[in-house]
What does this fold into?
Amino acid sequence: MISPTSPILETRNLNIYYGDKKVVRNVSLKVPKRTVTALIGPSGCGKSTILRTFNRMNDFIDSFRHEGEVLFEGTDVYRSKTDVTEFRRRVGMVFQKPNPFTSSIAKNITWGPQINGYKGDLNELVETCLRKAALWDEVKDKLNDSGLALSGGQQQRLCIARAIAMDPEVILMDEPCSALDPQSTLAIEDLIHDLKQNYTIVIVTHNMQQAARVSEYTAFMYNGDLIEFDNTSKIFSQPSEKLTKDYIVGRFG
Amino acid sequence: MSQIDSALGANRVLTGQDMSMPQDENRVRASFAVNLRRRQLKERIFFVSIFSATLVALAILVYLVASIAYDGYPYLTWDFFTNFPSRFANKAGFKSAIYGSVWLGGLTLVFSVLLGVGAAVYLQELASKGRISSLIELSIATLAGVPSIIYGMLGLGIFVRFLSLGRSVLAGALTLSLLIMPVIIIAAREALKSVPDSIRMGAFALGATRWQTVRDHVLPAALPGIATGVILAMARAVGEAAPLILLGALTYVAFVPESIFDSFTAMPIQIFNWTSRPQPAFHQLAAAGIMVLLVFLLICNSAAIYLRSKWGAKKR
It folds into this structure.
């Protein structure tokens, strides 16, 4: 297991329950800064659940309960003093299904900054974010059109642009390509590659080739347990655990 | 049969002569009793019965409107709109009732939308889903079915007597607001429920508070649905006579309300008053009043449908 000296996100002995059901078991994981970390594993293994503790999106599930610590830059995000809205600004999220707001493309990007009291030039912000999300050239002439008029792949890049607009430190991606065609998937993967210069990215994916292509570190989870966490190249070439190997070669999952 | 043959056989189109099924373990074995004639007969019966249901409803409506129009037409003159009620049928007019209904409707709209949509947003978006919230839900559904005359008694007790608002427009509007609030709450909750959660999650993930999320994304998306509920509820409020009569709204009002504390009458009350008189001329006046009330409702509903389609178009 790798153990970076200054992780940006960290879980310590994390247990998660939905009601009586224990879905994550004693997971300790350190996510290094400005890297891409992939969480892989079969459906229901708890990888999305862990991802959602990193920005506390589990708060909306009534039966959610946790033990242990989830640290962002060294402080527990579940500490009662944490202002969850400010914290979510710094830990952005891109969802499985593209979910642009029902407003214009420009408004999709400016809304987040505006409600958080952004002081700068909004037009400039729109252009910067759309450029970073590799969408500017496709939409620069129709910034006032509805975000829903875009294709699925474009919508997802718009959602990434929307997340970038908050100037987050971390971007969480929950199977961002599972609803997209291969071409759009490729565009998003290229984008992830560019974004890791400035952001820490944690991506949950069902697609092992994708994990191998985009990430530096990979965590393999199975049935609520963290089985193995290591350099992606090591996980995919010589995993230490038999379970990891079986999953990677497609024996189950 | 060789393997290749059976693979070909599986793809072969079955014709009438060729009923011999190839031996293929993977196929579903089933026999169908198609009985097309019977199914088509049932289809016809189904079609005819739903069509005649529509026809019957429509015919009754047409007959009602036609007979009212026939009765009321002679009295639909300019004087009818500008005169106050009178003991003499040929001098009696609908002015105070029209003004009263407009005042009532406007105030009721403001109160019931503010309170009803507010309550719906609280119950749907903020309140934790538990035993208390399902108890509240049940109570509201029950309240929606309570007879309007009960609301009249409530209004009389609370607004007219306890709060000493008297028999004013304000007391009437507050009573009608109570009456239609359950309907608005239920409709608004349904509309809010139909807004996909992904929109809320998207907003929360950007660091939005619940209020910012609801204000900028959830409410706008739910607006067409909420508007529909409000329209239906308002149509009911404007057509109500019983609770207002119980409140003590006057039936003879020879002035137009000028403030929310003035006494009032309303279209349904005036119509009720005219129909309960013995002289046939007053019955014709009532028919004329009904026509005005119907047109009033028609205009309100059309305006609302127009607004709704405009909002709907903008969103796409």
